[in-house]
Amino acid sequence: MKTFKTLKLKIRQFSIKYFIILIPIFGIIALIALSALLNLTSDKSIKISTKNAQKSCRDWNNYEQIYKEMIRKGPGENGTAVILTDDNELALNKKLFSATGFGVVVSDRISVNRSIKDTRHPNCQKYLYPEELPNVSIIIIFYNEVFSVLQRTLHSIVNRTPPELLHEIILVNDMSSNSELYDPLEDYVLDNFPNTTIRIKNLLERKGLIVTRLEGAEIATGEVLVFFDSHTEVNVNWLPPLLTPIKANRRLATNPTIDYFSPETFKVDGAPHYSDRGAFDWELIWHQLSRKVPDGYNKLKPYPNPIMLGCAFAIDRKFFMEELDGYDRDFRIWNAENYELSFKLWLCADGLYEVPCSRITHTFRTLNPSRSNVPYDYLGRNFKRLVEVWFDDHKDVVYDRNRERYDKIDPGDLNRPKSVRARLNCKNFKYFLDYVIPELIMKYPIDKKVPVFASGQIKSMLNVSYCMDFVKGQNNETARLKNCKEGDIPESQYFRMTFHKNIVFGHTELCLDAYNINFLECHYTEFGNQFWRFNLKSNMINNGSDDNKSCLTADFEEHKLYMKTCNVSDINQKWKFSYQNSTALNDWENIYGYEKYFYAGQEINWNSMLPLEYDEECSMD
Ligand SMILES: *[C@@H]1O[C@H](CO)[C@@H](O)[C@H](O)[C@H]1NC(C)=O
Ligand SMILES: *[C@@H]1O[C@H](CO)[C@@H](O)[C@H](O)[C@H]1NC(C)=O
Ligand SMILES: *[C@@H]1O[C@H](CO)[C@@H](O)[C@H](O)[C@H]1NC(C)=O
Ligand SMILES: *[C@@H]1O[C@H](CO)[C@@H](O)[C@H](O)[C@H]1NC(C)=O
Ligand SMILES: *[C@@H]1O[C@H](CO)[C@@H](O)[C@H](O)[C@H]1NC(C)=O
Ligand SMILES: *[C@@H]1O[C@H](CO)[C@@H](O)[C@H](O)[C@H]1NC(C)=O
Ligand SMILES: *[C@@H]1O[C@H](CO)[C@@H](O)[C@H](O)[C@H]1NC(C)=O
Ligand SMILES: *[C@@H]1O[C@H](CO)[C@@H](O)[C@H](O)[C@H]1NC(C)=O
Ligand SMILES: *[C@@H]1O[C@H](CO)[C@@H](O)[C@H](O)[C@H]1NC(C)=O
Ligand SMILES: *[C@@H]1O[C@H](CO)[C@@H](O)[C@H](O)[C@H]1NC(C)=O
Question: What class of enzyme is it (predicted)?
Fold first, then answer.
């Protein structure tokens, strides 16, 4: 292991070397940046001589790599977008996008070694972590992943992970049909990563994300398992902060903060520094709630995360495989396993913590070839297994959302997951709601019959044969004016003006947003672009917060909707819902507002949030 002295020596050599190259390239900006970095390193030598020194804390930043990446130039470097201009390339890219969910031409153009911007909070650079940390087996499973995307995942890991902590990388191929992912991948790995143990396991049968991950975990021999999706790029110094809590307490798990890159342009967008808490609604859709920590808590320290997203996390191998029994092996394809593991961690062990100074970038594909064409409701089945094992007296809250769906699903044999829960003597589901995520039932009330102000079709009063209609685009869902369907209200014309004072599409979590008159994930705030008011007297749908200044207006020529200054005589601004609760609408100011309805008298004491159950070996304060 490098000592601090030699590490610093290396920094010097590098900085001097690159100083000379950099001046003409970046000029004054680079000079400032470099001198800031050099200052930082000298800061560290001061820090190391203080209280942390005797505890063998180490600056794990790999400055050699950081400098190397700072001077890289080319498409997509520093996480920038690549925009194609050539018509042929655009056409090919579009074609491949619909087959894979990725801009393949764009990906192929970007170096496998590309740099991405350091999205950490600047203070993260200065923290020290223990010198001794457990090593990791990184498990990456894939099904028909785009070759260059997978290559970039591997290079980013090898480039930005301390070799002494990287025990191995395990690739598990879930029986892809793309032949590039067999021999060419093996050759690529042998040629490019001679100094890293990379093992490849090819499954002979499609097993889905969940069982495929377990297949990887079964052959792993590192001390800690890290699970990654195959479209992930790790950021600077991502691993030591992620391992530090696990070293101190092997019965908890950690997840990095997850930034996002676009599957079209590969542009990286950083998540907020003090990110969010994972949660779910009662239709079991994953959501983020805003982050709450006790007063005075250093926000860059790991903090409790109720529900993991699942695309990236670290967990002690023996704890996961032997104590927690991994995942439910009868979950199919994808989804529910992240809830299951989060419940296990919070109800049967010491929890899950998100680490703000550990960052990776990941993408959500809008199209996923591995999940289409599954001929049965695997997701409903997974959810039913999850609910049967974990939800105790809250099972019906989920089932009542969709009786028709759940009644006909046979969840299969639940013996094994149920006996794991019994063996671990886990707490009940109520504990999770009361102590791990007390804000959940405020955001997602258990009683689905919370009154709505108005619902059904939204008809123009100028021409009652026109209704607002939900139009699904490729990446955008917009509201348009279309002919009102008669008879049963069609799905695309059913809206609800809820107690949140939002206009929600059906029973989804998509809310009408005034900025582009499209549907975006609901914010649930009583301000901003999703805060509306329906005025029963004027029949106008106006801005909930700007004093009647702008109103939803029909454009019959273009069949669209837009916001325009309110004018009570303008009949293009008059609307009618199929159902209107006049009692509620007439009492608008006084009732139901989300904040009023749910937070009233229900103070949450964030100071009593579960404290982190580990000793900080190298203080972050
Ligand atoms: C990378 O991008 C970030 C912001 O997007 C910028 O602050 C930084 O200077 C860039 N780094 C390089 C080496 O260009
Ligand atoms: C990526 O980086 C590795 C290690 O520095 C180097 O061996 C390899 O040639 C690079 N590959 C490309 C395509 O730049
Ligand atoms: C990782 O840890 C295991 C168990 O302590 C050890 O056997 C193995 O040699 C370590 N791997 C590396 C690469 O140091
Ligand atoms: C592998 O390690 C050897 C010996 O340390 C070194 O010479 C070589 O450059 C390394 N190769 C790569 C691709 O990192
Ligand atoms: C309403 O629109 C329909 C369809 O475009 C049209 O046939 C009808 O004449 C319009 N009615 C009025 C009152 O403008
Ligand atoms: C939505 O996406 C479609 C197809 O990608 C595009 O044609 C349309 O202009 C977009 N609409 C808006 C409002 O952005
Ligand atoms: C309402 O007005 C506020 C302030 O002008 C604005 O920020 C918001 O986007 C508007 N919202 C709607 C739904 O029109
Ligand atoms: C908004 O309009 C309604 C009905 O036209 C009116 O009663 C109300 O006072 C108006 N609000 C403001 C702040 O002007
Ligand atoms: C309001 O609408 C009426 C009817 O369309 C129109 O005559 C009037 O000029 C409008 N007022 C303003 C201020 O735009
Ligand atoms: C209408 O709103 C009132 C509250 O003002 C509520 O008590 C009532 O249950 C609502 N009616 C329906 C049918 O939702």
Answer: transferase
3-class DSSP string for 564-614: EECCCCCHHHCEEEEEECHHHHHCCCCCCCHHHHHHCCCCCCHHHCCCCCC
- Record the pTM: 0.72
Q: Which of 130-139, 256-265, 319-328, 590-599 has the lowest mean pLDDT?
A: 590-599
563 is written with which tokens? 């916001």
Q: What is the DSSP letter of 136?
A: E
- Index of the ligand 8 atom closest to the CA of residue 537: 4
Domains defined along the chain, listed by start: 1-66 (no CATH), 378-447 (1.10.8.460), 452-592 (2.80.10.50)
Tokens of 417: 């997951």
Rounded to an integer, what distance in angstroms lies between the CA atom of residue 207 and that of residue 209?
A: 7
Structure tokens that stand for 604 in this block: 């949450």
Phi, psi of 405, rounded to the nearest 5 degrees = -70, -50
**Measured in angstroms, how far is the CA atom of residue 567 from the centroid of ligand 10?**
29
Name the residue of 461, 462, 567 whose CB sits within 8 Å of the most ligand 9 atoms, as the mutation to test its pocket: 567
Find, among 171, 172, 174, the residue nearest to 205 by Cα.
174
The values of phi and psi at residue 355, to 5°, are: -110, 105
Tell me the average pLDDT across 74-99.
Answer: 95
Mention every residue, 6+ apart, whose C-beta is less than 8 A from residue 272. Answer: none
- How far apart CA 230 and CA 222 sit, in angstroms, is 19
pLDDT tens-digit readout, 119-178: 999 999 999 999 999 999 999 999 999 999 999 999 999 999 999 999 999 999 999 999
pLDDT band at 214 (very low <50, low <70, confident <90, very high): very high
How many angstroms does the Cα of residue 562 sit away from the middle of ligand 7? 13
146, 102 Cβ separation under 8 angstroms: yes
CB 528 less than 6 A from any atom of ligand 7: yes
